[in-house]
Structures are given as C-alpha cells and as structure tokens.
Amino acid sequence: MTPEISLTQDPSHRRHGSNIGQPLTRREGVLKVTGGARYAADNHPPGMLHAVLAVSSIARGRVTFLDVQAAKSHPGVVDVMTPANKPALAEDPDAKTNPFMFRLDVLQNDQVRYANQPIAVVIAETLEAATEGAALLSARYQAQPARVGLDAGESFVPPAVGVGKPAELRRGDVEAGLATASSRIEATYETPTQYHNPIEPHAIVAAWNGDALSIDTPSQGLAMAQGRIAGLFGISPEKIHIRSPYLGGGFGSKGLISGPQILGIMAARLVGRPVKLVLRREHMYGPVGHRAPTRQTLRIGTDGNGLLTAIDHRAKTVSSTFDDFFEPAADVSHTLYASPAIATSHEAVRIDTGTPLFMRAPGEATGSIAPESAIDEAAWACGMDPLAFRIENYAEVEPISGKPFSSKALRDCYARGAERFGWSRRPLAPRQLRDETGCLVGWGMGTATFPALMFQAEARAVVRSDGSGLMETGAHDMGQGAWTAFAQIAADALGLDLEQMEFKAGTSDLPDAGIAGGSSHTATAGMAIHNAGAAVIAKLADLATGDQRSPLFGAGNAGVVARGGRLFRRDDETRSDSYADILGRAGLTQIEARGNGAADPAAQSSYAMHAHGAVFAEVKVDPDLGQIRVTRLVGAFAAGRVINPRLVQSQIFGGMIWGMSFALHEEAIMDRRSGRPLNPNFSEYHVPVNADVPSLEALMIDEHDPHVNALGIKGVGEIGVTGSAGAVANAVWHATGIRVRRFPIKIEDLV
Ligand code: MOS
After folding, report:
1. Cα(262)–Cα(204) distance, rounded to whole angstroms?
2. Separation of 683 CA from ligand 1 center, angstroms?
3. Mean pLDDT, residues 25-53 taken together
4. What is the pLDDT of residues 71-115, one digit of tens each?
5. Where do the Aldehyde oxidase/xanthine dehydrogenase a/b hammerhead domain residues begin and end (predicted)?
6. Is 718 a catalytic residue?
C-alpha cells in the first residue's frame, strides 16, 4: 500500500528568505543509502580491540563469582575488566549534581541493581573472542527477591516532575466539580514498560592519547556528554573530542551518556589501546533508559450541556532504587481541555529496574493515551460525539495556568482533519460499521499536544572574502534531518544560497548546540544559527555603511537586507554591495560572529507554548479472531513555522506510527520472579512493520507564532505520538464496544 501524502504550507510564511519552507531532501541522504555514512561503530582505529559486556541475569543482589581465568584463557581475549581491576574514576558515578545527570553502573562494586546491568567487560582481539569470553565468565550471584511492577517497592513522591513542574497541582475544587456533575466517569488505565530500540544500538569507539580522549559515539547532547566524561575521568572537557555525525535514532536514549559508553572508555584506558563497544540488542534492555510503566486513574465530571466540571488525573509509575527519573504522565491534563477544576498528582515506587529515562514524548505519550481514552468515555457517557465534546470543551487559555496560548490552531486541526477523514459520517454508537468482509470498523480520534520548549545553544557564523559562508554548531542529526533544516535556516540567516555555504555540525569541538531533545532542537539551535547569521550580517553592514566607497554608505544598519551574498538598501534595492567587496575593501579575509538560542523568559512567563494536533484513526477488527488492523490514520498538526515540510512530514509520520505502536504493539514483559525482561529482542518485542502501517496523512496547518521565538518554530519530533495512541484505542472501542484500558490492546482483550 502506498501511503498517501499531503502537506500544505503557506508560502507567505517564508519571510526570512528562500530556503526556509523548502521540502529539501536530507543533505546526507545519499551517503546513508549508499553506505557511505560512517556511524560510530563503523570506525576501526589502528590497534583497536573489541569489548563485550557481561550483564547480570538477576535483578537484585550481588555478584559472588566470575570465572575471569576461564575468560582470559580463551584465545584472543586480552583482558577482563571487573570491579577489581577497573580504572579509578575521578567522580562517583552515583553522584548527581544536577537533575540532568543519569546515575551509571560502571562496575563500581559487586552490587546488582537491575537485570542486564553490566557486571564485567571482556576485551579481545575480535568480537567473537570477546563474546565467547563473556559467556565463559559463568557469573554466580547471591540473589534477593526482585521488586517488579507498579505494586512493589517503596513509594515516593518526587519534588518535581518533567521540566521542573510540581508533582501535584490543582486549580479549582475537583471534588465539588465531580459532586455537581450530571455525568461522571472514573477509569484506570495501564501503560506498559517500553524499551528503546533505535536501529543503531549504543556504541562507542574510544581511544586515549595520554590524557586526551578521542571518541566516536552517537549523542543527542554532545556538550553534556563531554562534561560528564570530563568529570568522571578528571580531565578538562577540551581534552575530549567526540564525533557524532550520524545516529541511527536516539529518541531520548542517547540524550545523556550511558554506562556502557563510559565502560568503553574505561576499557580503552585499562588496556592502553583503542576499544570498540557496541551493545547487543538485548543489552539495551537495562542500562540505557526506558519508558516506565504507568497506572493512571482519571475522574471526569460533565454537566448537562456536556461541559467539563472537573478533571482529576492521578498517575503512578516506577523509578529505580538508586535514581529518580520520573515519567510525568498526568501533566498533559494541565493543557488539554477547559475545566473549572483540574487536579493532577504523581507518585512512584522504587523497584529493581534500570533507571527509566526520556523516551519519545516522555510523560506526554503515556499521559495522553489515558486522558484521550477517558475523554472518549466521558463523551459517550453524555451521549456526545467525541469531536463535538472536545470542541465544546476547547481550552481558549491554558486551563491550569490561565495563561493565553502563544498560538493555538487546534480548532483548524480538528476541522481540517475531520473533513479529510470524513468524520461527520461516524455513527455515535459503537459496533455500527462493517466492511465488505464482515470486519467491524471503528473510528476514533485524539488530541495531540506537546510543549514548545527551548534550551540553550550557540552557533558561529563566518563570511569569507570570496563571498562564501560557514555556519558551525555542534548540532545532532538523529536521522530526523536536523542538519538539512539547520542549513536552510543558516543560508537564510547569512543571506546566501545553500551552495555558497558550508555547514558544520556533529562534533564536540564546535559551539554547544544544546540537546536534541524535548522536540526543542530546531527551535533552539535554529535560533542560535539565526542570531549568529544576523550578527555577522550586522558587522558586514557596519563595514559597508561606514565606508564611503560602498554604494551603501550612510544607509545605516536598519536599512539593509542580505540576499544572495549581497547587502541591499532596503529603500532602494538598486543600490547593493557584495560581501566579497565589503570584506576586500576592509582588507579582511573573513568576518565572524556568534549567536545564542534560548527561550525568552518574558514571553514564557506571559504565554503557554504548545504545539497541537488532531489525529483520526480507522481500525478493522475481525469479530471472530479479534485481530486488529489500523487501516487509516489522518493527522492535522499546528506546530508554528515549518522549516522543511518533507522532514516535518517524516517526523509526524514516525510519531503517528509510534502512537499506533503504543496502542497495539509495544510491551516489555517483565518476569515477576527474576525481574528480567522476557522479550528483549526484535523477535518478540513487537513494533509495527511496514505491513502494519496503514495509509498515513499528515496535514500541517498554518500557524504564525510571534512569541515562541523569532523564527516561530515550535518543534515536531514528539507530538505525533501523543494524539495517535488515543485515537487508535478509541477506534478499537468504536469498532467493538469493548473499552480496553490496559495497553497495548491485544487480541485476547476483544474475544
Ligand atoms: Mo526526546 S525523548 O526528548 O529525545
């Protein structure tokens, strides 16, 4: 089946030049499909050894024996790194000086805190020898009973969840709102443990040269990785050179440097040779972060007109026994629907698990499938169409804060998506539609929302006397096409055609581009690029307008525009000067400037900033077998300015597929006896394959946001997951009349 593709973008929004808004293909696309792109694990420095992890098969206890002799006697094995001989670290890997630190298991002692925790590293001349050496270690343990799942372990309430929000928040009187409601629902939903499965597992090639360190490793946050490694090894960050030109996906798992990557560096130090360590797929199910399971209870009240009177959203999740990452699942209820009373709360239990971490819309993905299902249940309880119900309860301001939205084209998303999908033909009651083969057909929808975040980034812009330009920032391309979008922003910022401009990114030696996370990278690094370009153009304008020999003499900075390698007088475009001539007359070979990208605190305190969307799903369910097929997904999204519609479409499609995966496929089955994931591989950890993916449509709705940042970018990486999961779940209910509240929905739930 060929997915139908449809994208719209108003060309009038291309006010900053001719590159932003173009559907360019990825700059590195040909290299990737021809095998020319060199990923971290493709590097083989001379003298390199291979390292393989041995991991714990218990979830709690200690390692009592490792047959190091047997492993070392295997031909090709060079050394075995254990807590006994590991190189000393300058910093405790369990220390945490800021919330963006991830406590690491790097052989600090014999304790086992979760299944698949690294317990030794075997280093050998070949991958095969290292793998065999790891098997020969034959670990023995003193095991304690593992605490597994949402009902085990000690409970705690974190001081803050997500990006510094309080764990409990309320506005209005929820109990009073529920008491006066004419219709009420109370429902509890469960979302499963999910593990990271980027195509490229975590990998590192590490080489020491004295106290300098050269690293190839995929990273979503180069400067943070550099800082963490510097601290652990007691060297200055300038001594650490990290190359991360290509990533085979990140999705949050490569946002913070993980234990296995540090172990690769330690192994290289131990043996005094370069070392490569690539995680086996099943070793991803422990030390690199994952999505925590949740149990969410929603109570929703509505009055006789279908208006919400109260939303109470309580979320329970898990964290590890030794760290405190917290999936902020209830926070989406702050934003989604207008209600005079809203209360959200979070708690977690500490269980014997690797610490959960960011995974594609952390909080919003888990937190939207539950309320989107609950809103569907509430609409049905008062006999209303779920779209009409959502529009009736449309939030004109952010419900929890009362702040106006910086922009919100969600009404257009609802209208355009519904029209494209044919929603008006949907029967209200479930189990009304069948296809020609007798399958039950169901239509469901969900609202998508994700905050428009910005962190910190820096860029350096150069214009050279030959008229060419350079833009540098250590930005991260996880496969989403970031470099292409950034080059488009850079070309417009420098007033150059793309061909006249060089764009450098992907190493820690470049200016800090912040983190490719929270769907914030394009906005943050994009603004750094935009500002660096503007600063270098301002310098050129100063030179030209102050030089009597320039046609721009006396025009003043504000009176010039940059385009095609020239500055033009704004009031008289027949008068212009080329960058080359401006620099040549000044006797300069180049001119440079830096720029920062960061959120504007004043705008942030005045406005609620979110991207929005509406997703419509069709499913078909075999009434005898319970088999569920998603046959159509239509999404309409408003996320501010679209830098590159082709790449945005691909991000949104990826998100929509992930949402469908959330509703129907993905789940790590945790063994209650051992605390181990029972399906740590693609063979049994289900994700949608092409045959599962239906016709997809992503409509981008025009949205001009004057407040989020000067470019009007909101971010598109994660929002696609958020509406889609609920839409699919609601479509399954509409097909069958069965409301499944434990995800993923399975065949056995429907027969
Ligand atoms: Mo994403 S979970 O912010 O990489």
Report:
1. 9
2. 25
3. 96
4. 999 999 999 999 999 999 999 999 988 878 899 999 999 999 999
5. 34-145
6. yes
- Judged by DSSP in three states, 330 sits in helix
Structure tokens at 611: 């991207």
Give the CATH fold of the 456-598 domain.
Answer: Aldehyde Oxidoreductase; domain 4 (3.30.365)
Complex ipTM more than 0.85, yes or no: yes
pTM above 0.80, yes or no: yes
Cis ω before 744 (30° cut-off from 0):
yes
Would you list the domain boundaries of the chain? 40-144+202-278, 165-193+290-453+605-749, 456-598
Q: How far is the centre of ligand 1, averaged over its atoms, from the C-alpha of 420 (Å)?
A: 30
Residues with CB under 6 A from ligand 1: 220, 250-252, 255, 358-360, 362, 517-518
Give Dmax (Cα) for the chain.
Answer: 85
Given 3-state DSSP classes, what are the helix, strand and coil percentages for the chain, each rounded to the nearest 5?
Answer: 30, 25, 45
- Between CA 658 and CA 724 the distance in angstroms is 8
- Of 251, 450, 453, best ligand 1 pocket probe by most atoms within 8 Å of the beta carbon: 251
φ, ψ for residue 379, nearest 5 deg? -65, -45
Between 101 and 336, whose confidence is greater? 336
Q: From the CA of 15, how far away is ligand 1's center (Å)?
A: 30
Q: Phi, psi at residue 532, to the nearest 5°?
A: -65, -40
Q: H helices of 303-450, where?
A: 364-381, 386-392, 410-421
- Residue 296 host element (H or E): strand 294-302
562 forms beta bridges with 567
| CATH number assigned to the domain with residue range 165-193+290-453+605-749, chosen from the 4 options 3.40.50.800, 3.40.50.2300, 3.30.365.10, 3.40.50.2000 | 3.30.365.10
Characterise 519 by phi-psi region: left (phi > 0), alpha (psi -120 to 50), beta (else).
Answer: left
Catalytic residue of the set 200, 472, 667, 718:
718
The amino acid occupying position 271 is: V
Q: How far is CA 13 from the centre of its chain?
A: 26
Q: For 40-144+202-278, which CATH class?
A: alpha beta
Atom number in ligand 1 closest to CA 254: 4
